[in-house]
């Protein structure tokens, strides 16, 4: 297949890119036939792999679809803001909500529902979305320009032998490929390495968000109420915090974001989230309620200095794949949409000029720099790095940055990749994590939570988590780090089980919720996450 | 004869295909209800003798050297020529793998639709209405033909009974086919062997399921002994099938089978929710687990807290004694 534009990933960035292309094509006929625009999505349907808190700043969506408020599935406008500092067993409410936590004018949304709606809008334009189809490999032409992607093989068994329903993947060629795979995209990662897209020196750093959706007794929490928590159960040296968003129909979105740059290799973000729910503040809120959904996702929060080059020959990066996330406001949906629109403009102009070279596509950098998205990200360029040495120093530097327009003490605060920050067990990391014993009512084990993500994969398929050298897991990691994969994975994919009289690594890939934490946080960088057969993965609803 | 019901008979290595005879039974029933003649056509090479075994009053042997072995090109071209000569009202096919392969091509070459995999029919105001299933059998839908004949439909395996066929000895007639080697573009590979019929746990009345507590593959013989004593099917939770100790079709739970036998015996299964959703509707659940807090006990009617290696052997003995 030969397309004009191929968009990999039907999230807010990819779908906004598609819609904006459609708008440009109808305003200027003759440049782009929308039949030649395709979107690939690995989920069972659009939205199945989308998860966020989420409080959305509507700025970008309003630019894309000025009348969105009439038809978009917005849950509730934000009606109140609060920030709490948690200590063990108590909480202090911040007397003033810091300005970056002000959410008036914003909407609480389910990203999964918003994505479904955007997907329908895209399909109405005549653009085709291929669901259950994953991009497996970046294809290049002889000159090294991106030529498209190869899709996943269907119907291979565990040993890569064809089953009855075998169908090999196809090579999809396009003049321009837009990588909108979300956080730690597997193709974006390939492209980043192949083309050396690192721009400013800081490695990308991530956080993991673990979320549950609960149904509460009626009248417990007002729809539109937004609360964030800092402190307990995270240590002062840890980056992260909780959210509590009141939704319509007595639902509440709860979650804990944990910086993937913690020191103790046995720390378990899912366990910390369960512990967080046992705080009296949450215990009171959730009493008599029922957990109905679960999900997890990583968040690229490295900020401006971690963003890659946004283009290369024949390709652009948008949304989380391009690092478009404001780590101070913990918001990325509006930046994802904006980046998709900017990319669409660049692509459309390039097609109109008949030139999709690296030089031409680099125009997206200039349009990004001229946009409010750049202004917003520039202001918080050093925010996340300020917290690398703990909350106290973080507040000092972040305060300084606020009065110096984002600069602080240094022009660029450096950062270190999260997986390099573990302290080896042999070097006695501080604060041995204890574990919550799940009670099945307020707190849950990972396997029960995974059930509520509706994750499903065909069991008889090649593993999609590639461990390049299991000897490192079984002989070295076990001594040095205690196999942190068992703890950082929020879906119980990694297990150490006794085989032949000793502990060995064992994978349960069918539990995977596609958060990519393992690809980010394994201390030896020997785990590679690749997409499973298209259609596999969580089936998020209202998350 | 024009306006008849023409049944396509499949043959393989000198034998008539069973589903073709079932389809002929369907055709005979329709013929009676609609007052139409029933005829048969058998494509192949050297099939005159086989044609004589088909229990229809008139059987056409559609022969050409290029029809052996089967190819979708050869069959659809030859049958198209036969249909153009015979001008039937309905062409009825067995829903075999071969028919799935060529029938849409044949119908399309005559610019007709095709109603595949029908399970029955009725006659409404003199018109034929076919029934087929949707959504994996959750729903039935009635389909009537529009436009001009010939119409095309295929019949699901087992929908009609071949032993109800009226016995007739046929008049066999040859039909000429013009086939050029250049028209047959595909070359058949080895014949596809349908996978061996897998175990249907949903029909089992007693299931003995094993979990991680069984520890080693060799220990499955213990559970096997219990299965034999109880005439039960063996099943397992995910880790056992994941290890390859039992085939995946014996896995119970959200990524395996959902069962509701009269008796479900869980040996060394902790009872993660993924497993429970596959078996919690069993009539009686008996769980043996050494961890008294295992969630399996929440759904069990009878629970034994203990090591399955201590519990199962005497249990087998007692069952044998009780059964005499």
Question: Topology of this structure?
Answer:
The complex is a heterodimer of chains A (543) and B (324).
Chain A: E1 2-8, H1 12-27, E2 37-40, E3 55-56, H2 59-64, H3 68-71, E4 74-77, E5 80-87, E6 90-93, E7 107-109, H4 111-124, E8 128-130, E9 135-140, E10 146-151, E11 154-156, E12 162-167, E13 171-179, H5 186-195, E14 206-215, E15 225-231, E16 240-246, E17 251-259, H6 269-277, H7 280-286, E18 290-300, E19 311-312, E20 315-317, H8 333-353, H9 358-361, H10 363-369, H11 372-379, H12 383-386, H13 391-403, H14 446-451, E21 465-467, H15 470-480, H16 485-488, E22 494-499, E23 502-507, H17 517-521, E24 527-529
Parallel strand pairs in A: 1-2, 1-13, 2-8, 5-15, 13-20
Antiparallel strand pairs in A: 3-7, 4-7, 5-6, 9-10, 10-13, 11-12, 14-17, 14-18, 15-16, 16-17, 19-20, 21-24, 22-23
Chain B: E1 5-8, E2 11-12, E3 15-16, H1 18-34, E4 38-44, H2 48-51, E5 58-63, H3 72-86, E6 90-94, H4 97-109, E7 115-124, E8 127-134, E9 139-144, E10 151-155, E11 171-175, E12 206-210, H5 220-230, E13 233-236, H6 238-242, E14 263-267, H7 273-276, E15 284-289, H8 296-299, E16 302-305, H9 308-323
Parallel strand pairs in B: 1-4, 1-6, 4-5, 5-11, 6-10, 7-10, 12-13, 12-14, 14-15, 15-16
Antiparallel strand pairs in B: 2-3, 7-8, 8-9
In short:
The complex is a heterodimer of chains A (543) and B (324). Chain A contains 17 helices and 24 strands. Chain A has 543 residues and is an alpha+beta fold.
């Amino acid at each position: 297949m030969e397309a004009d534009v191929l968009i990999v990933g039907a999230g807010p960035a990819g779908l906004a890119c598609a819609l904006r292309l459609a708008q440009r094509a109808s305003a200027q006929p003759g440049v782009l036939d929308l039949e030649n625009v395709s979107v690939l999505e690995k989920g069972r349907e659009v939205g199945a792999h989308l998860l966020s808190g989420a409080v959305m700043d509507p700025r970008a969506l309003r630019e894309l679809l000025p009348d969105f408020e009439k038809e978009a599935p917005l849950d509730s406008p934000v009606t109140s803001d609060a920030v709490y500092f948690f200590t063990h067993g108590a909480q202090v409410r911040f007397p003033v909500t810091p300005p970056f936590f002000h959410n008036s004018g914003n909407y609480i949304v389910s990203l999964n529902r918003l994505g479904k709606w955007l997907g329908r809008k895209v399909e109405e334009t005549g653009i085709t979305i291929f669901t259950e189809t994953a991009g497996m490999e970046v294809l290049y032409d002889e000159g090294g320009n991106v030529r498209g992607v190869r899709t996943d093989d269907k119907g291979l068994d565990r040993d890569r032998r064809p089953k009855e329903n075998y169908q090999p993947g196809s090579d999809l060629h396009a003049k321009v490929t837009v990588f909108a795979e979300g956080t730690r995209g597997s193709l974006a990662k390939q492209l980043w390495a192949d083309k050396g897209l690192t721009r400013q020196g800081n490695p990308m750093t991530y956080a993991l968000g673990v979320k549950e959706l609960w149904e509460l007794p009626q009248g417990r929490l007002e729809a539109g109420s937004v609360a964030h928590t800092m402190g307990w159960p995270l240590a002062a040296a840890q980056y992260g915090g909780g959210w509590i968003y009141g939704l319509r129909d007595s639902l509440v979105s709860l979650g804990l974001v944990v910086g993937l740059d913690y020191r103790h290799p046995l720390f378990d973000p899912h366990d910390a989230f369960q512990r967080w729910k046992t705080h009296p503040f949450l215990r009171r809120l959730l009493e008599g309620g029922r957990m109905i959904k679960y999900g997890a996702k990583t968040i690229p929060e490295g900020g401006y200095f971690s963003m890659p080059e946004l283009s290369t020959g024949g390709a652009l990066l948008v949304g989380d794949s391009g690092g478009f996330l404001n780590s101070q406001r913990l918001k990325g949906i509006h930046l994802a949409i904006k980046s998709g629109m900017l990319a669409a403009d660049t692509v459309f102009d390039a097609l109109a000029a008949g030139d999709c070279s690296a030089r031409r596509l680099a125009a997206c950098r200039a349009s990004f720099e001229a946009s409010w998205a750049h202004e917003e990200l520039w202001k918080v360029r050093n925010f996340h790095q300020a917290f690398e040495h703990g909350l106290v120093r973080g507040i000092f530097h972040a305060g300084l940055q606020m009065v110096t327009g984002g600069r602080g003490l240094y022009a660029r605060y450096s950062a270190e990749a999260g997986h390099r920050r573990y302290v080896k067990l042999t070097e006695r990391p501080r604060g041995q994590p204890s574990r919550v014993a799940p009670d099945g009512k307020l707190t849950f084990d990972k396997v029960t939570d995974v059930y509520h993500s509706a994750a499903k994969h065909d069991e008889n398929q090649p593993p999609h988590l590639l461990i390049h050298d299991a000897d490192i897991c079984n002989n070295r990691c076990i001594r040095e780090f205690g196999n942190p994969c068992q703890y950082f994975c929020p879906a119980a994919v990694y297990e150490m089980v006794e085989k032949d009289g000793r502990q060995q690594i064992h994978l349960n890939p069918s539990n995977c919720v596609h958060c990519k934490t393992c690809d980010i946080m394994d201390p030896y960088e020997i785990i590679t996450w690749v997409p499973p057969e298209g259609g596999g993965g969580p089936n998020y609803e209202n998350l | 004869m024009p306006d008849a019901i023409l049944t396509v008979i499949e043959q393989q290595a000198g034998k008539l295909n069973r589903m073709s005879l079932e389809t002929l039974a369907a055709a005979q029933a329709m013929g009676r209800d609609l007052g139409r003649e029933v005829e048969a056509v058998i494509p192949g090479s050297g099939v005159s003798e086989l044609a004589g075994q088909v229990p229809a009053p008139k059987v056409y042997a559609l022969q050409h050297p290029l029809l052996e072995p089967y190819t979708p090109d050869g069959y659809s071209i030859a049958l198209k020529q036969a249909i153009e000569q015979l001008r039937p009202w309905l062409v009825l096919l067995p829903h075999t793998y071969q028919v799935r392969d060529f029938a849409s091509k044949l119908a399309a070459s005559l610019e007709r639709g095709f109603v595949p995999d029908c399970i029955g029919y009725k006659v409404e105001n003199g018109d034929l209405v076919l029934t087929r299933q949707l959504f994996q059998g959750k729903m039935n839908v009635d389909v009537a033909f529009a436009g001009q004949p010939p119409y095309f439909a295929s019949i699901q395996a087992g929908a009609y009974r071949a032993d109800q066929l009226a016995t007739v000895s046929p008049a066999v007639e040859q039909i000429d086919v013009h086939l050029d080697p250049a028209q047959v573009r595909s070359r058949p590979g080895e014949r596809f062997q349908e996978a061996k019929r897998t175990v249907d746990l949903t029909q089992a009345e007693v299931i003995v399921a094993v979990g991680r507590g069984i520890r080693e593959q060799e220990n499955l013989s213990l559970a096997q002994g219990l299965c034999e004593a109880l005439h039960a099917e063996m099943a397992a939770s995910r880790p056992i099938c994941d290890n390859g100790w039992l085939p995946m079709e014996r896995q119970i739970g959200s990524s395996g089978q959902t069962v509701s036998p009269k008796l479900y015996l869980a040996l060394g299964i902790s009872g993660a929710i993924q497993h429970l959703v596959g078996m919690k509707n069993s009539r009686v659940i008996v769980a043996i687990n050494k961890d008294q807090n295992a969630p399996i006990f929440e759904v069990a009617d009878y629970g034994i807290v203990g090591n399955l290696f201590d519990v199962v052997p005497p249990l087998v003995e007692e069952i044998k004694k009780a059964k005499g």
